[in-house]
Amino acid sequence: MSANRSFASTKRLHDSSLESIDENNVSLHTPNQRTKRIPMKKFTINDFDIGRPLGKGKFGNVYLAREKKSQFIVALKILSKSQILKNQVEHQIRREIEIQTHLRHPNILRMYGYFFDDTKIYLILEFAARGELYKNLQKHRFYDEITAATYMAQLARAFIYCHANKVIHRDIKPENLLLSLTGEIKIADFGWSVHAPSMKRKTMCGTLDYLPPEMLDHKTYDSTVDLWCLGILCYEFLVGKPPFESESTQDTYAKIRKIAVEFPKHVSSGARDFILKLLKKNPADRMTLTAMLEHPWIVKNAKVSEE
Which of 264, 265, 291, 294 lies closest to 280 in space, CA to CA? Predict the structure, then answer.
């Protein structure tokens, strides 16, 4: 068993807007794509029909919702201000909103807008119909190499976009990924992300099983931490658990520092090579995102989306 899994009150409402996007028909990164747009307005909770719960979090819950006027389906993340203040994560929530509202990529969950009242903050998110990838992975135990390679290619493209926009995610893991109706990966949680124009940071964050050596040792790091996390993620896709998972935190730390990776027999030599090229102690030695897409294992196995 792993030990590792782990705004001031105001009545003013922020302006926000929605774009009606059919995920089956529209590529979000097509610059000239015409989309039906809901006029700018001040949203309140009364503008939405609230449906079934989609998930629960430390600071609130996510619900299926429908904007009444347009009938557009969204996921509405409702956060408790009191819990946010109690846990002193106002800056983290604000940063998540600022980053995610500006990102536009087919493999990044859209945040269409947000609003708030005296007690709650409401985030208006794209609805990913197939839900949490973590639950899907648990159901399958582990993915075949075609599925894993396809997801890794989608994530590589998403991170090329993020890093080009000076965004480091720092906390990629199955729990922070969703699946769309068409089965595409959606990066869904930017709570630990940072917009770092200098691309140099020193804060320890993220999930223990996924921590890179430089973050573990409190060294300055950059966007290459995401490359390490992608290597860990690929291993978990193919094996069903992270490579350094241990009974104790100290054992996990030791395995990370040694990069003590053991592969089950069913993992191919190509997949092993792909993972080990990302799990390099020296960040400069890690395979780049472009090289990930050109790696023979990806080229052989990844399915290309029809756009």
Answer: 291
